Amino acid sequence: MNSKEFFSKSGFQETNSISLDFIQTIQNQQEQTQFLDKLSQFQNLTNLTIELSENGLDSSFAKLLSENILKKNHKLAELHLYLSSNLLKSEGLQELSNGISFCSNLNTITLNIIKNQIDDIGVSEFGKSLSQLNSLQNLALDFSQNNIGDDGITLFSQCIVNCKKLTSAILRFSSNKIGNAGASSLINSLQSCPNINQLLIDLGNNILTDDGLKNLAQENIIFSNTSSFTLNVVQNSIGKKGCQYISKGINRMMLLEDLILKFSHNDFGQTGMQDLIQGVAKCQKIKNLRLYFVNSQIEELGSYQLGQGLGKCINIEYLSLDLHNNAIGDEGAQQIGLGIQKCKNLRNLTFYLVDKSVKLKGAMNIINSLKKCNKLIQILIGFEIKLTETQKNLIQRALLKIRKLVQKSVHIGK
Length: 414
Known about the structure:
This protein has 414 residues and is of the alpha/beta class. It has 13 helices and 14 strands. Strand 6 (168-172), helix 7 and strand 7 form a beta-alpha-beta unit. The chain has a 14-stranded parallel beta sheet, with no helix packed on it.
């Protein structure tokens, strides 16, 4: 519901579910007061969704939202708040946390609080509010682009251990100041939530090294019920040891079907790739695999290891690879292609290989290898190659030989 509908409509206060889109809509105090006055008329809500991004909201607004709405809707089961790019700071988050702690029936929380100057105090206070919600099952948080460090994430993690019923945890803390101690605490705490089947940990663009991922390899850290796992450590300092830790961790996810690893702009190189892909290859139930390794110094030997590992993932149906700028070369591209062609159940392939070292020969090697993927119906491939019209036609003719292909897109960067 947009602002015009919300303010003009009457007689619907008894509804138990409401979804409001007020992005960039209530940017002065008068508009914000009118919004809260109208919303305060709803006191029987079980489901509340509000998009309030980019409105200049501060802690005083958060306090009124907490006092007049959250604390008066005790039946609330689902709460979705989108508050990115405001001015809440930790004081505002504390006010919201106070209100949330009164909603004892909450089973689902989504909080997007990107770019709000949240520090350690704010995130730790929010964690305390979560620890009081005994029915919480689904948690999706985005604290990206704030000022959270190890102390804050550690205190937050200590509270998460009380959320025993969690089945889905989506935790985004990219672009903060989190190091090894904070990452270790977060991973360790999630082990206390044995029912998690969907787990996303986003620690991209922080200050992690290999030791931050060490807890994934601990024998007592077993996410035995996890079927979907996403780990984002883009733009940190992850090397060979970090890859080993992750490999050991995912090996013990016996039910894993969906795996997304975002490792771009790290320096794990050829040997790290070997360790990582060996762990992936042992997860025989994986159907959806997405690997993001942009600018990771994989080179030809790493490509060989990647191809070998992919060839063992026999149940993959959806595969996405992003290997920009890794000096793979034509031979490396061929090795990856040889691995992909062994994925007999592959239906959908996305492959970005914008790499100056890959020429026409490498591109053709990959495309020709796909002829043996008899179930493949959709491909999207990107190359950075300067081709003549004759060479482009050669690629198109090769695509036509992939028999069941319904949708195809080959992007040539030059």
